[in-house]
C-alpha cells in the first residue's frame, strides 16, 4: 500500500537506522559541496577548534534524509518538499559515529486539491545519544484523489 | 587577510556563481542520499507530477553551500554552523539549470569569548531567475582574539 497524505496522523512516530559514517565519506561529500578544512583536511582539523574531522552539516542532513527515505518515503506518494524550519546542528558528526533518526508527525493540512502538507519533526542522534541534527521538514504528499 | 566575525557588517552582500547542474550529478547525489524516483529515475520522473527529473532539495542546498564556501568562507575563520531558519524550496532545480547565489548579512552578534554569530540570508536562483532555494544560515566565525 502506498502511503498518501491521509495516512499520516499527528503524533505518529518512527525510529530509523542505524547508519555508520566514515572519514572517507565525510571528506568525499565535503570536497564536492563544503570544502572547508574542518571537513576535508584531517591534519588541519586535528589542530583546529573541533580537534578532529567533522562532517559538513549538509552531509548530516543528507544522511538523515537517506534514513528517512529508506524508512518512510520509499513507499509513500511523495510530491517534494516545501522547506525546513528550525534546523539545528547541536553536536558535530564525526568519523565512526552511528546515526539513528527519530521522526514524528507534528502537523498535517491540505495544500491543494491534489496534495497535502505533512510536517515531520526529525531528530538525528549518535550512538552516544548526542543530537547532531534537529529540524522540521515540511513535505508534500499526494491525496488519494490525485490523478498521478 | 582572513575574515573574522568583526569583518561582517549587516547589509553587506555578495553574488556568487554561476554553477551548471547536470542530470548525472542530480542522480548521483540522490542515489546516495535521497533515492526517490523523481530524483533518480528519468523515465518515471517524466511521467510523474514534476514532468521530468528534479534535484533533491538537499542537493540544491549543498550546491548553494559550495558557491558560498568558494566565494566567502574559503578565506574566513569559520567555526561551523549553528543551524538554518526558514529554508524554502520554491521551484525545483532541473538538469541544465545554472545557479547563482545572492548572500546578505542580516544579523551579527557575539556568541562567546572566542566566536561570533553571523546570520546570512541566502537566495539561490536559476538562469531564468526562478528561486530554487532561500534560507537564513546561522554561522559561527572566530573573533579576532580567538587563540586558534
Automatic annotation (TrEMBL), chains A, B:
Superkingdom of this protein's organism: Archaea
Domain MaoC-like residue range list: 11-121
Listed InterPro entries: HotDog_dom_sf, MaoC-like_dom, MCH/BMMD
SUPFAM superfamilies in the record: Thioesterase/thiol ester dehydrase-isomerase
PANTHER family: BETA-METHYLMALYL-COA DEHYDRATASE, MONOAMINE OXIDASE-RELATED
Protein name, as recorded: MaoC domain protein dehydratase
